[in-house]
Structures are given as structure tokens and as C-alpha cells.
Amino acid sequence: MERISSGSTFFAKKVFPAVWFGFIVIFLGIGAATGAWRQSPMFIIQPLIMVALGVFLFRKLVWDIVDDVRDGGAFLLVRKGGIEERVALANVMNVNVTQFTNPQRITLRLRTPGKFGNEIAFIPKSSFRFNPFARNPVGEALIQRVDRARMNS
Q1: pTM summary value
Q2: What is the pLDDT of residue 36?
Q3: Which CATH architecture is the domain 68-152 placed in?
């Protein structure tokens, strides 16, 4: 089975948020150690705003994505943590491919919810492109295959 999800999913879900919050903790630690927070309350307020923004964005864009998606022809094998599910293409109601987010996302909306609910989001594998308006080939192929599977069922 060919992997259609990105190899950078672990980095996007685990490493980048850890670095984000790690820098904020270091920034707060330096402010607390030097006493800078007494002179300027923004030294505390700004990192708290960054934490709130980070949690909001990571929850909406990153933490809901699955770890691995493999193409099995008439189905997709989806894995998140220790949970694995086989999703038939005929069960997919809609394929949404984001174009201007980083990382790009493909969200599959299911007719009948499975182990991951009624939506499955993943980061598709992609190569570097000079054209930011180009469509993702993994998403385009999924849209066509889901349409064919729907017509055949």
C-alpha cells in the first residue's frame, strides 16, 4: 500500500508545538529570573497571548490530523496512535483540500462515522512547487476516485 500522507506529520504534530511552547517557557523563565516582569507587565501578557494563540491554532489545524494514511485501492487505511481503521472510498461524502494553509490538509467527510468520527484530516505528501496556486495531486486523485467509487456503489 502506498503512503499518501506526509512524512512530516510527526514534526507538525509533536516537534513544532514543543518548540513553540518551549521558547515561550524559556522566555518566561528569563523574565522571571531577571525580574523584567516587574518593570513591564507585557513581559507576562505577551507570552500568555502567544500560548492562547498557539493552543487555538494547533487545536484547529494540527492536533486533529491522523498519523498515517495508506492507499489500498478501494479503501484507505488510516492510523492515529494505536487505532487503525479501514475507510472505504464509497463511504467518503466529501474531500476538502486546503490550498493556502501550511501544512496543507486533506479532510475527508464520511457518510457514516468511524473510529475517528465523521471527519478524517491528514497532511498529504507533496513535493516542492513554484506555483502556490497549483492543486495538490493527492487531493485531486482522491476527489476523482471517491466520485468513481460513489457512482459504482
Answers
A1: 0.84
A2: 78
A3: Roll (2.30)
